[in-house]
Structure formats: structure tokens, C-alpha cells
Amino acid sequence: MTTGLAERRVLARRLPAWSTPMPSVCRSSKKTVQIADTLNDVLRPKGVAVVIEGSHQCMTTRGVHKPGAAMVTSRMPGAFRSDGSTRRTFLAMIGRTGAGPLSNT
């Protein structure tokens, strides 16, 4: 499927908002959902997979003081949710095989 001008404009308007820092786990989870849902709604693909990994200041400098601690959130609607083989192939491509559970929001 080719992406039309209207779809590219929608994505171009939203890209800057997606690239801003995420100061909390709740916001990163929300951002993961927003990105996946927008891609799914605008492009209408067979499936979308969005995985975001980030370290959070509350884990590294305050509270538990665990440097290198990372949170991973994901959203995989369509073929990535319904077809385990497709999901496993994607996760292997991004190096997440055996890396522990993903939160599929």
C-alpha cells in the first residue's frame, strides 16, 4: 500500500510530539499507545508493532538508584497480536528475543 499525501501530513504533524522526552512510565505507556493507534488508523496496515524502551529518572537518580534500569512498553495490534510467528519474527529483528516480558498496552 502506498501512503498518500494526506496520510504523510497527518504523520508529519504528529512526529514532533512523539519525539519529546517521556518523564514518567505512565506517559511512555500512553505515548506507545498513541503512536501505534495513529499508525494503525492512518496507514491501515495489516499490523503495527511499536516498542519503546527508555530509562526513567525516577529509577536512576531518585528512589531505588538503579543505574541502567529500563522500562519497555509495547503495543501490537493486528497481525502482530493475532499471529505469534509474526510477533516473534519482529521481536527477534529488534533484539528482544528472550529479553523478558513486554507490556502490551
Structure description:
By secondary structure, the chain is mainly alpha-helical. It has a single domain, classed as GTP Cyclohydrolase I, domain 2, CATH 3.30.1130. The radius of gyration is 15 Å and the shape is flat. The chain contains five helices and three strands. It has a three-stranded mixed beta sheet with strand order 1-2-3, with helices on one face. Helix 1 packs antiparallel against helix 2.
Q: Quote the beta fraction.
A: 5-15%
Strand order of the largest sheet: 1-2-3
Shape field: flat
Structurally, the number of domains stands at 1
Overall residue-averaged pLDDT value: 77
CATH class identity: Alpha Beta
Alpha-carbon Rg, integer: 15 Å
Count of extended strands: 3
* Largest sheet descriptor: 3 strands, mixed
Distance between the termini: 26 Å
Give the full name of the CATH homologous superfamily.
GTP cyclohydrolase I, C-terminal domain/NADPH-dependent 7-cyano-7-deazaguanine reductase, N-terminal domain
CATH topology: GTP Cyclohydrolase I, domain 2
Reading the helices and strands in chain order gives HHEHEHHE
pLDDT < 50 stretches: none
Number of helices, where a helix is a run of at least 4 consecutive DSSP H or I residues: 5
For the record, the CATH architecture stands as: 2-Layer Sandwich
Question: What can be said about this structure in brief?
Answer:
The chain has 105 residues and is mostly helical. It has helices at residues 5-18, 25-43, 57-60, 79-82, 84-93, and strands at residues 50-54, 71-75, 103-104.
Sum up the structure in keywords.
105 residues; mainly alpha; three-stranded mixed beta sheet
